[in-house]
């Protein structure tokens, strides 16, 4: 039986439903869904002057395979993601656990830890760039007091990726902390009371009760964080920029995409890079979903 | 037992305070630097406080760049997006949550798919649309694509789903149509959800750098984030002025955050728990 015969719909309700979803749905189709299809198509084209393009088959993907820049940006993006996300998640679990104890000023702490999340990344990058300044920056001046010669934080290609990661972690702790606090508040007190009777200490309770029950939240938070980290752009654009010799070890996939699409006018190539990013995010999401059964405990 | 617990509390506070200092110090340093002279800012050994606050750094920013215009543009763009998303997303969210209609599941999954796609995948065609509409270097380019959102719709749908259907029965018997039920009965009950969506949209719009960078290059149509990057380009080493600009660009959002903190936290916890 056809679906429209199988169910009775109220005609006026259906009419209203379509009127109500139309604006958002048409907007999403025109500005988001159709462009995704277009980008997919563009990734098989080559662009010339004046926005003219022609079919180029798989050539963009082939170029990508042999382009050392793509491999560097891929390496940088993966390094940034898989270093900053675990550190940020671990630290924010610690902070959330501490805030979940019966202590005073929880509200104040939460506000302070959350501040970096609401601050414009462009401004965050400027302040850190200043803190990292190798001659007059606060960090190196303090290190100097301890008789340590501070590194060239942003202009030493070996150090710069880690400086960017530090800022990435700093600005994401607050967000994850709020997610974990919500998760922790959902844990029933009775588990802890039972553990208290057994004489379990703080650390033991954390490993045997808190972390297992929190694991679905950890799973969700890491997935979101990884997806965000894959798209890092603002920090690198503002802190490093294209005149810095560290660009080679710091530029991310999205930075590379931006340069190709909007500075160098290699639109077809940029589209292929965007598809690569898309594929990466899909792969990580699928892997996470599969691994989920191994370490996530649902009550 | 109690002294042991007190000791534990002190340890917890010490750890939290160290962390909090690390979180807040960059802001403090930003403000302190913005009030120093160039000489004070770059003196070795370091000086923490300016001998005399130099407000001229702030007027310096205002003289060198149309910062006030950036501010107005940023506010306009953010407000327009908030209003558009609240209207369009809540309408669609209500229909998806409370009305039975053919093709509902398919259309919902289709819009959710947008959430999975990283922004860069649709950015280039979006730029071409803006160019073809002759919207580059206008506020329209910043506003219009952001009037629609899969995220906002998804969040509000969760809110509508949590409202019992019985609320609408009486109104239905009285002959109210779905729009009236949405407008008079359901919408007023989702105010916390609307606030959360408004706050998220506002924040994302205020802080966004990449899209404004791509579509608007003329200074009178720029937003604060792009303005900051312009400032950095012009005054690479004038740290006090750069910091003054950063303070001015971030303060409005920080104030909004302090007043509406509850909604930030609720919104994030909500996305996290479902």
TrEMBL record, chain A:
Pfam families: BPD_transp_1 (PF00528)
This protein's record includes keyword Lipid biosynthesis: no
Magnesium recorded as keyword: no
Membrane-spanning residues: 12-34, 78-99, 111-131, 159-185, 206-230, 268-287
Keywords noted in UniProt: Cell membrane, Membrane, Transmembrane, Transmembrane helix, Transport
Domain ABC transmembrane type-1 as annotated: residue spans: 74-288
Subcellular location: Cell membrane
Topology in membrane: Multi-pass membrane protein
Entry's family note: Belongs to the binding-protein-dependent transport system permease family.
Protein name: Carbohydrate ABC transporter permease
The organism of origin for this protein: Paenibacillus wenxiniae
Lineage of source species: Bacteria, Bacillati, Bacillota, Bacilli, Bacillales
Automatic annotation (TrEMBL), chain B:
Stored InterPro entries: MetI-like (IPR000515), MetI-like_sf (IPR035906)
Annotated Gene3D superfamilies: MetI-like
Membrane topology classification: Multi-pass membrane protein
The keyword Translocase is annotated on this UniProt entry: no
Pfam family, one: BPD_transp_1
Domain ABC transmembrane type-1: 71-260
Keywords: Cell membrane, Membrane, Transmembrane, Transmembrane helix, Transport
Annotated PROSITE patterns: ABC_TM1
Spans through the membrane: 12-32, 70-94, 106-129, 141-160, 181-206, 239-260
Subcellular location: Cell membrane
Matches recorded under SUPFAM superfamilies: MetI-like (SSF161098)
Family, similarity comment: Belongs to the binding-protein-dependent transport system permease family.
Name listed for the protein in its UniProt record: Carbohydrate ABC transporter permease
Organism name: Paenibacillus wenxiniae
Lineage, opening ranks: Bacteria, Bacillati, Bacillota, Bacilli, Bacillales
